[in-house]
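Support reply, case 0932

Customer input (verbatim):
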Amino acid sequence: MIWFLIALVTWGLGYGINHVLANGPNRQTRAVKLIVPVIFGVTLLIIWEALVRGFEIPMVILPPPTAIAAKFAASLSILWVDFVQTFIKGALTGYVMGCGSAFVVAILIDRSPFLQRGLLPVGNFIAALPIVGTAPILVMWFGFDWQSKAAVVVAMVFFPMLVNTVQGLASTDRMQRDLMATYSASYWQSLVKLRLPAAMPAVFNGLKVAATLALIGAIVAEFFGSPIKGMGFRISTEVGKLGLDMVWAEITVAAIAGSAFYGVVALIEKWLTFWHPSQRG
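Our regenerated output:
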């Protein structure tokens, strides 16, 4: 009974504090915008802990946050090795290669209407292929180490980045392009001084979409073969051993890494596109 009372009181306090902060005079300050989601997250964790213990849910079904935190603290060395294997080697390498090549191909497509009409439909078709179907093939092609995971990430991020960049390069209107033509600007001068700056919001939209896909692709690829390390490998093996606390610890690492990666891309976007209306508040 005490656990259900704790859950109820925690929800009431969290709701009351957040309601006051979100509707107060300082609701638009950075501190309040950070505090509100933190309070909401802590509230959910306490309620999770209380309900799991109140209903006496077995660890093999849903471990409480305290058990996950204890496992996390006791397995830092393993989690670090898995993080380096999956995120640094697989996801980040594939992200850089996929987004970089997509950016170059987008400029080539921008110069060639033939490629724009021929390659983009093919790209949309390939982007719709399920990752669980393509990942085993790429693992067989590139081996069981991080190279195959990077290849899966390249396949996942290439076409979202390509489509967003092509659309961004076409976002300038006719009057702006005619003005550059009256100044006798070459294609590359027009690209660097007008079209690339105008395309930056769309480019970063593609980068942010790719940031969320990269880690997912690397983890899923590890389910189809990997050395004895990596987030996907650890999740699949621990599920087989009913070690759900370790599974949730790996999920926590993936969530933190993915959120931090997305946040870094968003900060770079804010720094480079400060002139855009979406960044001026």
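We compared this against your earlier run and they match. Two observations from our side: Residues 134 and 161 are 19 Å apart (CA to CA). The domain at 74-279 is CATH 1.10.3720.10 (MetI-like fold). Please reopen the case if you see a mismatch on your end.
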